[in-house]
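2024-03-11 09:14:02 INFO worker-7 job=invfold-0412 stage=load source=structure_tokens
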């Protein structure tokens, strides 16, 4: 009915270290009212979280109807870092693909629009960014020994990402690969992807998609 809330919006950003997830998030929510969105960053699960099903720690932070959340890393950690670093057994990460797709499909059918972006950056560009961070006292904190070590496994991460795309790309929440070599281009690409996926989701929910501002103004002029 009138005044009823539409679906929530969940944007998931994945990608290697220094691929520009933080900058893309800033571009995405920088102009929004902070009361209407949540940004959640996921690292290693705590001991308590490990004692639960791997999706458990993400449940609390899912946006409700009419809300928005941006996940900086997500449940895909199970089939990326946990797979590559051996934190999940082969049986665990193999099972996770179906669990994730079932979970996302049910979220999309019940209450959410889910947008999934993978920020792709080359080894060379990643190295330049690492070196830039190492030289900048205000950014040095972002760089850990683990980040340098992970670089040695870039091929393993790529293989894991390829399999993840193949097994978890589905109609209600497809993957979007963002070319992240150029930060500005990547931010615009993320914005445009989120806008077009949101419009698709609105149509799916039977919500009228407003015309772009330029079209509204042109119509007013005529």
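2024-03-11 09:14:09 INFO worker-7 stage=emit residues=222
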């Amino acid at each position: 009915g009138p005044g009823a809330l539409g679906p929530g919006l969940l944007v998931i950003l994945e990608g290697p270290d220094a691929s520009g997830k933080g900058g893309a998030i800033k571009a995405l929510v920088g102009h929004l009212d902070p009361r209407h969105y949540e940004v959640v960053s996921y690292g290693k699960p705590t001991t308590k979280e490990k004692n639960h099903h791997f999706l458990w720690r993400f449940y609390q932070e899912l946006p409700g109807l009419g809300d928005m959340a941006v996940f900086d890393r997500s449940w895909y950690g199970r089939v990326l870092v946990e797979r590559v670093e051996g934190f999940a057994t082969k049986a665990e990460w193999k099972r996770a693909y179906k669990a994730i797709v079932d979970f996302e499909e049910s979220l999309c059918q019940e209450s959410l629009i889910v947008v999934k972006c993978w920020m792709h950056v080359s080894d060379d560009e990643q190295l330049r960014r690492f070196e830039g961070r190492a030289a900048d006292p205000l950014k040095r904190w972002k760089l850990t020994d683990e980040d340098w070590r992970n670089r040695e496994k870039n091929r393993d991460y790529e293989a894991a990402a390829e399999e993840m795309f193949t097994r978890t790309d589905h109609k209600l929440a497809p993957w979007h690969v963002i070319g992240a070599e150029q930060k500005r281009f990547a931010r615009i690409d993320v914005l445009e992807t989120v806008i077009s996926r949101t419009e698709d989701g609105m149509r799916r929910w039977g919500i009228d998609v407003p015309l772009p501002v330029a079209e509204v103004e042109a119509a007013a002029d005529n």
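2024-03-11 09:14:09 INFO worker-7 stage=report msg="The chain has a mean pLDDT of 94."
2024-03-11 09:14:10 INFO worker-7 job finished
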